[in-house]
Every structure is written in structure tokens, then in C-alpha cells.
Write a structure and sequence with these properties.
single chain, mainly alpha, two-stranded antiparallel sheet, 13 helices, globular
Length: about 375
């Protein structure tokens, strides 16, 4: 009898040996795949980087301060504004600023305003100057200074339909210049910027452009632990912070994005810039809601209701100055139509409809009662 068991054992042993050899060879030949790692660097707790310069943005913020201060003088009956002076300040011509450094800065607000709307702001200056010549008390159908019935120290020059052009201009330029430049000129184009050539004082083009976007936000380098001197968007960010946590979200994203740029960490740059863009847009939208709520609280006080709704209208208009915006132009028009074009006739329902629209688009229902 043939030894079948012995033969089978030999075949099995051979197969097993080949398998073991093959397995050993495979393990010996395998090269472990390294775990991907990005650049190692630290993110500062304040906006304290090498080669930072956003002096142009600080200058333009100061220019809007002076324009706003000059327009506020018309809140006293009989104090007429000079339309040409306002236009000169807007374009920085003819040395109209009280601060001489602004006159000689070489900067202006007009050429940083969304180009198609530059004539619109010139027209607003004409309108507010014309209304400031009225010696009448402002009422429905009559331009003039309207005095608050609940706080007589608050009085505002308002048009015959209740629109306060000082606020339309101020909030409008926050959008058409500051927000627009940050969103569509700087943050939207970072990926195409040079990040190699360093200019002393400015950094690379990519670093400098991010710094300029940050400059338009209007906060100190140690925000939010320091809120002294916050301006415009920074001020509204802080007003919304209690309910939305906007301060830390914005500042932490700005710090991380700038550090990533300086260390050529573009994946982190893109992720953090996306947070900055999304959060800033939400701040604009929440500012609409904030002002509408203040108007609702003062619905029977013509001066205050008109004042707050004028601010809200300026912010609604500001939402359009972002080519990657969440809201559509049709929805912006819808929100304005809910409010209507005579603020004296605005009702609680009008305010609630506009607020609900903005809130639903931006997922702000949980904070839509913010004040």
C-alpha cells in the first residue's frame, strides 16, 4: 500500500512553507505608509505677527467716523449740511477732514466702495443735505428733526418717510466699503496671492491682504479680552457675543488663518478663512435682527423706531456686498419690501416678517430675539 498520508503531508508542508516564505517576503518588502502631518507652528493669542500693516483700513474707519460726526450735527434743527463737503470727505479732496492726517493720507472711502454704488452714496449726501435745511419738525410726510417721546435727548434728522439717511450712509458704507473689500477683494482672492516675496513692513501679498481684511473688522490686536476702541463690525460682533459667541469665533479664526498663511499651511488657511467669511456674514444678518428688535421695542416712538429701522435697512443692503453670500438678491428685496418704504407705517407684523426671513436664511431662529 502506498503511503498516501506521507505524500499528502509532504504536499501540505510544501504549500505551507511557500506560504510562509511568501508571507515573510511580503512583510519584508512592505514600506509603511507615513502618517500625513502638516507644518508645526504656534498660533498667537493676539494679532501680533511679523510684518503687519493695515493702516489704510484704520484710516478709512477714521474717515467714516468724521463723516458720521458731521452728519450728526444736523440732528439739531436749523443746522444745514453741505453736500459738497460730504462728497469731498467721501473722496478725500479739498482737505475737509478735521484731522489733517486724513487729508494727506492718500486714502479715501469712495474708491473702496462697490463701484456700481458709488453714485448712490453721492446721491445720499445730496438728500441728507437737502433735508437738513428743513426748519420743520419731522413728521409723516415732512422732513425734519424728530424727537423721541420716551427720551427727549435722542433726536434725529429724518426724511418725510422716516428714513434717517445718516444711518443709511453709515451702515451702508460699513457694507459697501468695509465688508465688500474684506470679502470680495481680499479673502476671496487669497489663493492667487504671492506668499513668497516679503515686503518689509507688509509681509507677503497673501499676508498683507489678510491683514487688510482683518483691519476692516475694526478690533484691537488683543480682542476680545480688550474691547476698547472697537469700531463698526467689531462693535456689532461684541453686541451679539452674549447670545452668539461671535467674539472668540471670529478672532480665533483670524489668528489661525494668519498663522497658517505665514507657515504655508494652506489647508488650514482655507478652513479658517471659510469660518471668517461665514461668521462675518452671520454678524451682518444678526445685526439686521438686532436693530429690528430694537425698533419693535420702540414701535410707538417715531424717532427711535425710524432710527433703528434705518439702521436695519442699511444692514440689509450690506448683505449684498458678498459674491458668495447665502442670501439671494431676491430675498434681500423681499426683506426690504416687508419693511416698506414709509417707516412711519411699519407694523409689528412687518418687522416680524422681515426678521423671520433673515433668521430662517441664516439659521438664527434660536437668537432672533437678540437685543
Amino acid at each position: 500500500m502506498k503511503n498516501i498520508y506521507s505524500k499528502s503531508t509532504k504536499i501540505f508542508t510544501l504549500i505551507l512553507a511557500v506560504s510562509i516564505i511568501s508571507s515573510c517576503k511580503k512583510k519584508e518588502d512592505e514600506v509603511p505608509t507615513p502618517t500625513p502631518t502638516g507644518p508645526t507652528y504656534s498660533v498667537p493669542t493676539t494679532y501680533n505677527f511679523i510684518n503687519v500693516n493695515y493702516s489704510g483700513q484704520t484710516t478709512r474707519i477714521s474717515m467714516l467716523d468724521e463723516i458720521s460726526l458731521y452728519m450728526s450735527t444736523a440732528n439739531t434743527t436749523g443746522t444745514a449740511l453741505d453736500a459738497q463737503k460730504l462728497k469731498d470727505m467721501y473722496a478725500n479732496t479739498n482737505n475737509q477732514f478735521t484731522d489733517g492726517a486724513l487729508n494727506t493720507s492718500g486714502k479715501q472711502l469712495k474708491n473702496k466702495t462697490f463701484v456700481l454704488d458709488q453714485p448712490l452714496f453721492d446721491a445720499y449726501f445730496d438728500t441728507i443735505a437737502m433735508q437738513s435745511t428743513s426748519l420743520m419738525v419731522g413728521t409723516n410726510g415732512t422732513a425734519g428733526v424728530v424727537v423721541s417721546t420716551t427720551d427727549p435727548s435722542k433726536k434725529y434728522l429724518q426724511g418725510p418717510n422716516g428714513i434717517e439717511y445718516a444711518q443709511i450712509i453709515k451702515k451702508g458704507l460699513m457694507g459697501a466699503a468695509f465688508y465688500y473689500q474684506a470679502m470680495d477683494t481680499y479673502l476671496a482672492n487669497l489663493s492667487s496671492d504671492d506668499n513668497t516675496t516679503v515686503v518689509t513692513g507688509d509681509g507677503t501679498a497673501m499676508e498683507h491682504h489678510f491683514d487688510e481684511a482683518f483691519g476692516y473688522f475694526g478690533v484691537p490686536i488683543d480682542f476680545p479680552s480688550n474691547i476698547t476702541g472697537i469700531k463698526y463690525w467689531g462693535d456689532y460682533c461684541n453686541k451679539l457675543n452674549t447670545q452668539m459667541g461671535t467674539n472668540a469665533t471670529m478672532m480665533n479664526a483670524c489668528l489661525a488663518a494668519r498663522a497658517a498663511i505665514s507657515n504655508s499651511d494652506y489647508a488650514t488657511r482655507d478652513a479658517k478663512v471659510a469660518i471668517v467669511r461665514t461668521q462675518w456674514e452671520k454678524i451682518v444678518a444678526a445685526s439686521v435682527i438686532y436693530e429690528l428688535n430694537r425698533a419693535k421695542t420702540n414701535i410707538t416712538d417715531d424717532a427711535l423706531r425710524n432710527h433703528y429701522i434705518s439702521e436695519a435697512i442699511g444692514f440689509i443692503m450690506s448683505l449684498k456686498y458678498n459674491s458668495q453670500k447665502t442670501i439671494t438678491n431676491t430675498q434681500i428685496t423681499q426683506a426690504l419690501n416687508y419693511i416698506g418704504y414709509n417707516i412711519y407705517n411699519v407694523s409689528i407684523t412687518n418687522i416680524d416678517n422681515a426678521r423671520a426671513l433673515i433668521s430662517s436664511i441664516y439659521g438664527l431662529d434660536s437668537v432672533k430675539d437678540i437685543l
